[in-house]
Amino acid sequence: MTEETWIAVAPKSAVPEGEMLGVSAGGHQIALYNLDGEIYATDNICSHAFALLTDGYFDGDTVECPLHAGRFEIKTGKGMGPPIPCDIASFPVRVVGDDIQVQVTPKT
Amino acid sequence: MSASGARYVIVGAGHAGGRGAEALRAAAPEARITVIGAETYPPYERPPLSKELLDGTMPVEKTFVRPLDWYAEQKIELKLGVAATAIDRGAKTVTLADGSSISYDRLLLTTGGRARRLKMPGGEGPNIVYLRDIEDTKRLKERLVPGAHVAVIGAGFIGLEVAASARKYGCDVTVLEVAQHPMGRVVAPEIGDWFANLHRSHGADVRTGTTVTSLEPGGRGLRVTVSDGSVIDADLVVPGIGVEPGVELAQAAGLDVQDGIMVDEFTRTSDPDIFAAGDATRHFNPFLGRHLRLESYQNAQNQAIAAAKVMAGGEDPFEELPWAWTDQHGVNLQVVGAPLAWDQLVWRGSPESQSFVLFYLAEGVPVAANTINSGRDMRPIRQLIRRATPMDPAKLANTSLKLQDLARG
Hints:
A: mainly beta; 3-stranded antiparallel sheet; about 45% strand; B: alpha/beta; FAD/NAD(P)-binding domain; 5-stranded parallel sheet; 5-stranded antiparallel sheet
């Protein structure tokens, strides 16, 4: 039985405001976003075709896939219409000291 | 006719047909929607057919716009494996190959296209595989065995993607292109040559300025003679020489057809109750100020969505900047804009690198761009082109300046 755990993934200074960063934790590829000082985390892999969202374009509260221009809400992972077939996971985030931690269920 | 209880029929169950049905359902929850398709698969996306589906890295189901059971959940009737054979505009019915007919209030034609055929002796046969649908991909995949010699005719997106997939399988690959540069219809010669060299570095023999003069059975399968007199002994020939729009139904029904079903920016044909979207259309683009026919994912998807919204009572035109992509040997090329001419190319990043942008300027105004492994730049590039104002080339080339800042002006 695996349980959700908090995993430190990056120092907060590594994700300046308006920027994003790809990290991995517990077997997940995760995209971190800094929106107006608040950190959000989603799956980093587009649910349409294989691409890292952190190679895409972060604009407002959405991220656009670099391959086929599908978009997701960074706060929720919600897919915003075609060609996105389904939402992506969104992970709880907390900042402890300078550490960004995400809560994930490790993949075994 | 109220949009809610309307009877919508979509002829053509490709990518455009699927997205059209999805958008119609969203816009008209109570409408009756039927999608008619000659193929047995539910609507699917075609880009993987020459790439991931061909090289075996994607299962067929992953190409589907929506899973098969989704249509039933959405009360969208799919009539697959049966072609539409005629439209009676007076009676407002569509006749199917099984003899049945179906009536419509509004009709959407997403009849796509077919691979253009080689118009020369030997242009059809067991060793020539045209690529347009899933069955074609399956047929081609079986033939891509290590050591097989594949002659690709045409160095456009499809030809070059097939060439890359065939090299992955360990085939010997020769690419024959009539023009002096690959992908000449969509990119500058400099980009075409960059990709020719990419393919050469992966072991393909890329010959531009080369015409096929004859195709004859013999040797391993087909003997391909080209304009310099040399002969290529091929197991298999894959022509990738373009798409012909599927206009027969529209033409027979008396709609305005001129190398594509003519539609305005609202996807309306010359019949007020018939709309059309996707590869089959020649549509008016208000931003470009002209009609054009596009065989692209964007056009299939977004023109169909635009059509569905107008059919259900919406008033928004389809007026996107044309955009397309190709993936070859791990390199992603995206093309935005459809310029008839340009007078300056501006490189942002070095073509010696594996990641750069090329801007096309006409009298100082960016009219198009290519991104090579730089898809993230596409959004601000679109904004820059949309602005249609002159830009300082030195600023565009300066990678220490952010494109989003330049796009804001």
